[in-house]
């Protein structure tokens, strides 16, 4: 049945088929296995894993090296996980979420607070209303205009391709549509600063960094076009002047005949 205590429980194993209520906290060095709900108003620490097939609700912090869930995980007071967080269902948080070693979610991620991360890897489509990148001038130094933008763009080559999904199943690249982009190794030869290399030696491109380059290249192309138009118009005026002069000379010659 129910287990209720106002003191601490120190055990190597806790097994419950009913409700377990721990008001003062529980320290379990072994596994916690329950088919029902676990409710705790104090800190819950599980050094070797916490397996819950029902709901788990806590208004305090959960401190763990790993959490694995096949259902919904809800953290009202926040969770600090030093290992990986893996869930095949939704992950919902009304407080701060920090993942120092990675956050892997195959379902939905919903949060009303800020997510702090040093990196995010997605093998699917990321859809959002907008993405803003930090760009305030006060954070920047050594600001210089982009030179030779048109020459640089002409050295880049856009390609169409398909992902080799069947050869790299662990990369979870399941999109079988024709893609358009650049080859990272080729871009690195021209713009090494926009290419990153991970611990496995695989390369990626910061495509947003190409936008200012393309902007300046378009401006340079427009400037060249205007300059060419000016030269062409000047040439036309010179030719017209020559024609007018020749016509005048012909008319004067006819008068002498």
Automatic annotation (TrEMBL):
Check the record and name the InterPro entries matching this protein: S74_ICA, WH-like_DNA-bd_sf
Q: Name one Pfam family in it.
A: Peptidase_S74
Protein name per its UniProtKB record = Peptidase S74 domain-containing protein
Entry superkingdom? Eukaryota
- The protein's organism comes out as Proboscia inermis
Which stretches make up the Peptidase S74 domain?
Answer: 135-235
């Amino acid at each position: 049945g129910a287990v209720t205590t106002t003191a601490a429980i120190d055990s190597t194993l806790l097994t419950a088929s009913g409700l377990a209520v721990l008001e003062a906290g529980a320290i379990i060095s072994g596994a916690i296995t329950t088919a029902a709900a676990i409710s705790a108003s104090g800190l819950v620490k599980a050094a070797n894993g916490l397996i819950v097939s029902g709901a788990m609700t806590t208004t305090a912090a959960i401190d763990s090296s790993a959490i694995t869930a096949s259902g919904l995980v809800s953290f009202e007071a926040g969770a600090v996980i030093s290992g990986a967080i893996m869930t095949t269902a939704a992950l919902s948080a009304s407080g701060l979420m920090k993942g120092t070693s990675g956050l892997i979610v195959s379902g939905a991620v919903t949060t009303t607070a800020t997510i702090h991360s040093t990196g995010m890897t997605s093998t699917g489509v990321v859809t959002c209303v907008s993405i803003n990148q930090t760009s305030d001038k006060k954070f920047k130094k050594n600001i210089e205009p982009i030179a030779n933008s048109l020459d640089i763009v002409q050295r880049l080559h856009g390609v169409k391709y398909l992902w080799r999904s069947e050869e790299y199943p662990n990369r979870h690249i399941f999109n079988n549509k024709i893609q358009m982009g650049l080859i990272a190794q080729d871009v690195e030869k021209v713009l090494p600063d926009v290419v990153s290399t991970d611990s496995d030696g695989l390369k990626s491109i910061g495509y947003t960094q190409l936008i200012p380059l393309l902007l300046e290249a378009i401006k340079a192309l427009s400037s060249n076009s205007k300059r060419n138009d000016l030269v062409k118009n000047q040439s036309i005026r010179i030719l017209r002047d020559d024609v007018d002069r020749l016509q005048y000379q012909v008319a004067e010659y006819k008068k002498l005949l």
